[in-house]
Batch of 2 targets.
Target 1
Amino acid sequence: MVKLFVNTKKKIGHINKEIYGHFSEHLGRCIYEGVYVGENSEIPNTNGMRNDVVKVLKDMKIPVLRWPGGCFADEYHWRDGIGPKENRKKMINTHWGGVVEDNSFGTHEFMELCEQLECKSYINGNMGSGTVQEMSEWVEYLTYDGVSPMADLRAKNGHPEPWKVDYFGVGNENWGCGGNMTPEYYANEYRRYQTYVRNYNSKAPIYKVACGPNNDDYEWTKVVLETTHKNAPPHTHGFMNGLSLHYYTVPRTWQQKGSATDFDEKEYYMTLSKTLYMDTLIKRHGAIMDQFDPDNKIGLIIDEWGTWYDVEPGTNPGFLFQQNTMRDALVAGINLNLFNKHCNRVKMANIAQLANVLQSVILTEGDKMVLTPTYHVFHMYQHHQDAELLESSIDSVNIGLEEEYQVPNLLESTSMDKDGKIHITLTNLSLTDSYEIDGIFTEASVKSVKGTILTNDMKAHNTFEDPDKVHPVEFSKYQVTEKGLQFTIPACSVLHLEVEI
Ligand code: AHR
């Protein structure tokens, strides 16, 4: 039997609910069609937002949403997206498919969406092609309560009350699509731009996110932190609250990424092994952050993560539309368990992207909507939001078909929620083996257990014809023991157990 230890007496960190965050960009059919259909659409909507989509996102307890990009953010000029819709500027979305962006979804619509979702807002400012004045005025427009040119303009556009902006990103991927900057140049510009991201509401200060590294670019992390900390008053932590990290799981290569649905067992393990690289990235970037910020005041913000495959055959290559299988459920389960385990440094994470783009939780086609296996994992893991991470471990062994792409068979994380209930989320990466688990809880006896499991063939996915092929079911095959509980986890599965002690 495999031993799973849970120390119910040792809380080792707070799991910010924002770890379960999402990302929505003006890319393909993410915003338009995926979320926003406009007030005049026949698809049931409230002020243009799809009712079906809003409902399932609320059921999943979406905690925070990032917008408007991505690469789009550094080409986005917020003034194009305010005021009467018929007067809004049309532009070409050069990054993503060269389609016309009519700006009908702008600042007011995004803030309305967050209100409907009851989630926090994460706005990404334009540093690549925007000015300091433009960024500063956007913050004024969004948050200033009083008489000012931007607050007056907001009122004229129908929203006299200021909004609360929770998170603000100063640029996106400025080492690449956001201006091809060097780390020194970005860091100095960051110091300047962030100065004008004013906290007009001192009771609700904006959490500022600086652009962090691409994958394993440790030099970027080091130089940005060095430069932003130079002569900075210690309490400012280099003028930032968070530093971003982007890492995507690409099974093969960027040129030929691999299919979302047509893959073999080797590619399955390769994908999971590449996903696990996230652990190394968090540890290594975290170690550099420790040198500047030993008290974890700066959050590592993993605001883009997920699988990136070749687009579905016959779809616009610039739209990044891909299907989502049981393999993606494992990728989500692995990453979310890792973020939980690193919750003392990882303060927010945003899967890319919300609907119809990359590893989405939702796919839409006209008025139809499908929940992906990834959605179900987010739904099952929601209990970790704002819970306390418990010390826990599992005796795993390495498995896989190739030496290079070995993965641990089992991965877990465990938390205690505010009602004292314990939540264990466990992934079984093996395609062939189920495992008998002996769960041992220190100084606690189990009163009751509720379980939910997601398991299927690695390639199984939901389609508009068969939307429920992969769905979670109740898991009741456990036995309460003197020391905890025993159960068998099937191959290729994600399990959530809620345990009352
Ligand atoms: O999520 C798709 C793109 O990936 C984003 O626009 C960009 O930030 C990243 O390269």
Note: The radius of gyration is 22 Å.
Target 2
Amino acid sequence: MTVVPGSGSLPVLDAERSALERAAELAANGIGRTLPNPVVGCVVLGTDGSVVGEGWHERAGGPHAEVNALADAGVRAHGGTAVITLEPCNHTGRTGPCTEALIAAGIERVVVGARDPFEPAAGGVERLIAAGIQVIDVSELAIGAVAAEVNRVWLTSMANRRPFVTLKTGMTVDGRVAAVDGTSRWITSEASRADVHRLRAEVDTMMVGIGTVLADDPRLTVRDPGGLESARQPLRVVVDSTGRTPSGAQLLAGPGDALVATATNYPGPGGRVDLAALMADLFTRGRRHVLLEGGPRLAAAALDARLVDDVVSYLAPIVLGAGPAAVEGGSVATLAEAHRLELRDVTRFGPDVRLSFTVAH
Ligand code: AOF
Ligand code: ZN
């Protein structure tokens, strides 16, 4: 345990351990709604160790998790413990500092699941200690892993100063995304495609290569289960080195914004778009999670540039025997150079299987 100076070597109580798990569950309610902000959950324990308040950060610009949990607890927070997945903010951004809210509520002990890497908000732990509050920072402990896990998109993005990148592929058992004649609609099932819309609704940016735009002219919008376009649409980005996107391309039309990234804006070697520069720019524009939807050459380039964090593959029970693969080209020349992934999850979607991986960097 990282024992914070002034807190003594206080053990984490069982109730606090459970509260941190619960706080991570609460935080997960915000996934897809809080970007560019983190997901955060908070549980307030009363003086007898029972849960007296719960809250989470529901949307960017809205009240922070701590404020919602303190409101839920009311006077029962006095003398109690706040268990939070992320270090409380110590700044006035769109809302006031949570450190001051915790102090004002009479909280005597705070358990922090992960430290806040966002400089303007940091310093919460030190501020609480200065106010005489016991602070237990479990970010380096195994029990802190739930807090890092639920917020891993945001924490990874902040650490890398670029958006978290999820590469999505929909392919046949032999790894192909189209037949030799170019037909590709629909390889994966309706159930898989509905899950892709759920995934799109979780990100703030969708990215495709120019080849995909020219071949499929996708709308790249998020639709709800009823097929209606959702009110909040991610930014759509086309990686288009030589500026071939037709002015009538569907993804340039609304709703939401679109960005055509060319080699003029982001010059890279060989007249290509510098993907790392594009990602860094997207980060400065407040983008924290990119869903990379192909095509195969953009996927290879992003993997080679070590810009992919997760891979989500929908595998359809179809064999084609010919046609482009989900990832084409790139620098891998021998098995030892292969991009290595770690399997996180396997789930069935209708006749298909969804495989979720993290890239082992
Ligand atoms: C949140 N929700 O529950 C906590 C956050 O844009 P603001 O003013 O709301 O501030 C956002 C920053 O505050 C965020 O990047 C993070 O560093 C810190 N804590 N943010 O959105 C929360 N606790
Ligand atoms: Zn806050």
Note: The pocket of zinc ion (ligand 2) is lined by residues 64, 66, 88-89, 98 (CB under 6 Å).
